[in-house]
Amino acid sequence: MAEARVVVLISGRGSNLKALIDDSRSADAGYRVVGVVTDRNDAVGIAVAEAAGVPVTVVPRQMFPSRAAFEAVLNDAVDGFGPDWIVLAGFMRVLSPEAVHRFEMRAFNIHPSLLPKYPGLDTHARALAAGDRVHGASVHLVIPALDQGPVLAQVEIPVCEGDSAGALAERLLSREHELLCACVRLLASGRVEIQPLQLSLDATNRHGPFLLNANNQLV
Ligand code: GRF
After folding, report:
1. ∠ CA(90), CA(190), CA(146), 5° rounding?
2. Which residues line ligand 1 (CB under 6 A)?
3. For the purposes of burial, counting CB atoms within 10 Å of the CB of 171, is it exposed (0-12), middle (13-18) or buried (19 or more)?
4. Mean pLDDT for all residues in the chain
5. In this structure, are residues 32 and 54 in contact, taking their beta carbons and an 8 Å threshold?
6. 71 SS3 class
7. Ligand 1 atom closest to Cα of 10?
8. Cβ(103)–Cβ(9) under 8 Å?
9. Closest CA to 9 of 43, 32, 42
10. What is the CA radius of gyration of the chain?
C-alpha cells in the first residue's frame, strides 16, 4: 500500500509536528508528512519542518481582509499538497463550516483534554480546578463545532498531588505525541471507516441515535 500523504496545520511550537515527522520515518509508519501549513509567520514549528526538509506554506491571517479570503488561500495551500489526511496540531484558528466541509472526513485535531470535557482553551487548569484525578488528550474528527467531532482515540494520565497546569501540560505532551502518531498510523492503515453522519443537537454531539419514548418524544 502506498504511504498516506499527511499535511499538518500548526500555529506554534510544532512539537506534535516533530513527533509525526520523526515517526513517519520508520519503515512501518505507512505515512509521510508531505507539507505543513501555518497561519503564523512566527510559528516555531516552521523551523522544525524546514530542518526536516518538509515544505511549509505560510498563510498569515493578517494579510487577508476577511476570514473567507484567508481560508480560500489556506485551503488551496492544504489541497496543493494532495493530502490523504489533514492533522491540526496546535492550529489555533477555528475553521468556518465551509472550510471544514471541504476537508470533511479527512481532518483530525489533537486536543489536550478528555473530550467531551473541556473543549476550548486552558484545559489543564480547568481539569485541576475541577479536581479531576485523571486528565488526558483526544484526537477527534474536525467538524464545525469546536472540539466536538467524534473522538477517534484518547490517552489518559493521572493528575498528581501538587500538579500545576504547566506540569500537567508538560507530562501530557509526550503522551500526546504518542497518541497522535498512533492515530495517524491507524488512519494511514486504511482500517478505520469514518461514518459520514454525525448527529448533533443544539451544537452538542450525540454519540448514539435518538430514542422515541412513550410520550412520542425523541430523547
Ligand atoms: C498541544 O498541546 C495540542 O494538544 C494543542 O496544542 C498544543 C500544540 O503543541 N492542540 P505543539 O505546537 O504541537 O507543540
Report:
1. 30
2. 10, 12-17, 45, 89-90, 110-112, 137, 176
3. middle
4. 92
5. no
6. helix
7. 12
8. no
9. 43
10. 18
Q: How many residues are there in the chain?
A: 219
Which atom of ligand 1 is the closest one to the Cα of 12? Answer: 12
Cell of 178: 504518542
Q: What is the pLDDT of residues 29-87, one digit of tens each?
A: 999 999 999 999 999 999 999 999 999 999 999 999 999 999 999 999 999 999 999 99
Pairing outcome for strands 200-201 and 204-205: antiparallel
User: Kind and range of the H or E element at 113?
Assistant: none
pTM of the predicted structure, to 2 decimals: 0.90
Catalytic residue among 101, 111, 124, 140: 111
CB 188 within 8 A of CB 6: yes
Q: Which three cell numbers stand for residue 80?
A: 496543493
Return d(Cα 133, Cα 12) in angstroms, integer.
Answer: 29
Question: Which grid coordinates belong to 10?
Answer: 500548526
| Among the listed residues 147, 145, 140, 143, the one whose alpha carbon sits nearest the alpha carbon of residue 176 | 140
- Cβ atoms of residues 24 and 15 within 8 Å: no
